[in-house]
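Q: I'm writing up a methods section and want to include an example of the input and output format. Could you take the sequence below and give the corresponding predicted structure tokens, formatted cleanly so I can copy it straight into the document?
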Amino acid sequence: MGSPPRSVHLATEADLPQEGSRRLFNEVERVFYSGYWIKTYPVPTDTLRAKKNLIEALTRRLFKHTEHGLNVPGVRLTDARAAYDAEVDPAKRRVKGAMLAGALFNRATDIFRRLVDLQTDGVQINSDYPLVRECGRCLLEALELGRLVLHRSGEEGIDELWGEPFRLFSTTLEEFYEGRYVKIGMAMRDIDAIAACMTSNFGEIPVFAGIKSVILEFAAAACVRIETLRTDPDIFDIWSEFVTAGERLADFSPIPLPADAERTSAARAHSLHDGMQLLRGGRALVFYIAHARTPMPKSTREYIERCEFYRQNGRSPSMPAPRPG
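A: Here is the clean output for your methods example:
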């Protein structure tokens, strides 16, 4: 079977494959979620060592995408908790709660390393082992505090990043991988929603003529990037295509209107500065989602609202209306 379309549009809902369906396309297995056929990868053998390696990777990923200052070593957990408990200022308490979450996260990772070392030395590790229970408690508390943490953009939290290690700890690797495909499908849906919003709102403004194909190429490259692991042999081509598609969008230049163009036309009424800022903001949001490989529904919804406001009012919501003439 040949490659599937990135986005599947079938005649009726009854025609859609069941969520989680798997098929081969060009000898590559793909799984169906949220209207997308997503590339799958082999699941590692379900061992403590495999989980340790994955939790360490998730830890690096978490601190890469969240606000600065949260990578507090696990050995400072007591200090982080004391600082959080003593804080009364709401804004500072949020930050210190986020730092406590980071310390808990690192403590859980430290414990997992020790568990693997013990298992390597021949110690049988059961689910009721005290260190196993302590690791689970740390991950669960980190998950609860994760709601206080913002994405590095400052726009919203990404609760999924905090929940993944706990899910990995409490489920099998096969179940964890399946959950990742679900989130990848949701992230692809967010990216296509952003792209559809950008093309529909900017496509009606003459000075942005030609932007549609640039946006769609960028969104397509982002969705391919999301489904591709960094260990995939194709990552060099996929990553370079994603980056250069983003550069083409960032470098887009509006078409200047003739000097004698009608001053009261709809095109003249739109602020080019605000429009370009919105385009760059959409590009940045797609990059955030593609890098984190998880949906950002709040940021997506708010971005769509800003684009619609711009099309209707000629300016961004926070900017004054452009003066005619």
